[in-house]
Amino acid sequence: MIHLVRSTATLRRALACSALAAVSAVAMAQSVPEAPQSTTGNLDIPANLQIFGKLDPNVRKPTAIVNDTVITGTDVDQRIGLLALANKTTLAQIPPDQLNALKLQVLRQLIDETLEIQEAKTAEITITANEMNQSIAGIAQRFGYSRDQLRTELRKAGSSEASLRRQIEAELAWQRYLRKRIEPLVNVGDEEVKGILSRLEQAKGTQEFNLREIYLAANDADQQQVFAKAREMIAEIQKGQQPFEYFARNFSEASTRAVGGDLGWVRASTLPGPLAEAAQQMQTGQVVGPIATPGGFSILYLVDKRQLGAADPRDAKLSLKQLTVRFPAGTTEPQAQGRAAEFAKTLRTIQGCGTVEKVAKTIGAEVVDNDTVRVRDLPPQLQDIILKLQVGQATPPFGSPQEGVRALVLCGRDDPKAGDLPRADQIQGQLEQQRVNLRAQSKLRDLRRDAVIEYR
């Protein structure tokens, strides 16, 4: 699979943050209650229906005409090449069955982008060539490419600058359309903000969850198929090769798809019952599901949790010294274990941070200082260890035969103050953004429904 890059900002993150894949390594699937409620509403669909004919409406060739705008097979292929570049992979590494499914996803994405650009033009919004050039130059500069080098990398990946320009145009045009036509219609009253602040004050100490969600719609006819698809997705997440947001952007049918399924910080009381129950039982870094919810299934990933208005010890700022002993090339696992044991024995001779450099010289270790690390910035395995250390103590050795062995010495810790409640303007901004997103999703659904789309 390849991550569908939704925006220019997403492309930048995808190019820069491949290490996020490690987040999904700690994952767990769990069983689910019985089938969800039907979502057919007022549609009159027989329970025991019979399909007449062999046409599968989901089988599409990767070309289309959208309100007289042509999307070619080349457009689809070049966008896939762009995604491959963003995810540091190649088309040859994508299995044929996944490539076919990806082409259909890309086609749907290109149709949406076409509709967004067309609708923006009705509002007299046009993105100039100079604006797109500036955006492309910014992307190239951010990652150390010249403009020509970026073009070369795109061509190597089977893409082109034209494909990138189209994505940038859609992103910028839709953002400006929302600011011009949607945001002026969104209003958040002062009393509403005051009410939320009052409830937050009363809720101090309540646990909050930073969640990501993948939502898959299902009805009576396809619930088993959707359930199986969700299980397959969880299995892929458990492999740890791609982060959770990869799957959320590709497959989620919720409005949070565009932001990688990010629900933000929420309290259990604001979640549907099944999700609230799951969140309260989850551990940080855990993935659970499929969870039956009204209208489909959800997969949840718990990024973090905290108590509202309370200080989180993981926000403590640390002063650290890191000792590193590098191993020669070809070091075996037993040899690494022996060197690590010797390293651990040496660490026990450290008597405060003032002796670190002296001890390091006896074993040829490198020493690096850092006074700005927060506990939560460290890998989860080290966070609990660091929180239990006293100043001057060292962590156990950690590393690998390839990279050598390391240890951290705690030289100081500035504990966080009690957490502050959000300001009124922050709450107002959040509410406005949520409502803009909902209206944007509704508008895009209307555009899809009214569009004349001919598949070729």
TrEMBL record:
Transmembrane segments: none annotated. Residues 206-304 form the PpiC domain. Gene3D superfamilies: 3.10.50.40, Porin chaperone SurA, peptide-binding domain. GO terms for molecular function: peptidyl-prolyl cis-trans isomerase activity. Keywords: Chaperone, Isomerase, Periplasm, Rotamase, Signal. PROSITE patterns: PPIC_PPIASE_2. InterPro entries: OMP_Chaperone_SurA, PPIase_dom_sf, PPIase_PpiC, SurA_N, Trigger_fact/SurA_dom_sf. Residues 1-29 form the signal peptide. PANTHER family: CHAPERONE SURA. This is Parvulin-like PPIase. It comes from Sphingomonas jinjuensis.
